[in-house]
Design goal:
Blueprint (H helix, E strand, L loop, with lengths): L2 H14 L6 H10 L1 E2 H5 L6 H9 L8 E2 L5 E3 L5 H6 L4 H5 L3 H6 L10 H19 L6 H17 L5 H6 L5 H12 L1 H4 L3
Antiparallel strand pairs: 1-3, 2-3
Helix pairs in contact: 1-4, 8-9, 8-11, 9-11
């Protein structure tokens, strides 16, 4: 383990808390995310260069650290830096930059400013619909169904580790799974 690797893991734990990854968490993360070596494969950057950018706040922190110490990031981790450049990322993300740089946007399959804003809007909208539940109203049902379906398309399945680090149910639990469970008539296409 390099000194930079150890520093990234320490910062990751400071952000997320110390929650052990289970075998199921490791399998989930391996399926849905990439190691730093995988995202730099065939590129001029090295994993340690990415770690340096993480520690300097120029690239997002790792989204997960597997139990073997591998830092895991979104598979498209370098897409926005390639498109806009590292120095432009604060402007590209605007108000969402602080959340982006923490690496905790594991609630999206692809972390872009538009997806971050859309996810926030959908969660707020779904929560407002549920607070004013009208399961007998066809328009309300259609709105709830389409909003839950759109959020479902943006979000990955999540892992048990996420529920530990975020201290409870994640947006998928509250706004997709619970909606489909509690309002089956509203979420069945008909």
């Amino acid at each position: 383990m390099s000194e930079l690797n150890a520093s990234v893991i320490k910062r990751f734990l400071n952000i997320n808390g110390e929650h052990p990854m289970t075998a199921a968490d490791d399998a989930y993360v391996t399926e849905h995310y990439a190691t730093l070596g995988e995202v730099t494969d065939g590129r001029p950057e090295t994993p340690d260069e990415l770690r340096g950018h993480m520690l300097a706040g120029r690239l997002p922190m790792a989204s997960y650290v597997r139990s073997d110490g591998a830092e895991m990031v979104h598979r498209d981790y370098l897409e926005l830096p390639d498109k806009h450049g590292l120095d432009a990322l604060p402007e590209v993300f605007g108000a969402e930059y602080a959340s982006y740089i923490k690496g905790q946007y594991v609630c999206l399959k692809s972390v872009t400013p538009a997806n971050m804003r859309r996810k926030s809007h959908l969660v707020d909208h779904i929560e407002a619909l549920v607070a004013d539940a009208r399961p007998g109203d066809a328009d309300w049902c259609a709105d709830l169904r389409s909003s839950a379906d759109e959020l479902d398309a943006l979000e990955p399945p999540f892992t048990a580790y996420d529920r530990l680090r975020f201290g409870g149910p994640v947006s998928r639990d509250r706004c997709i799974d619970a909606v489909r469970r509690d309002f089956p008539g509203a979420t069945l296409s008909g």
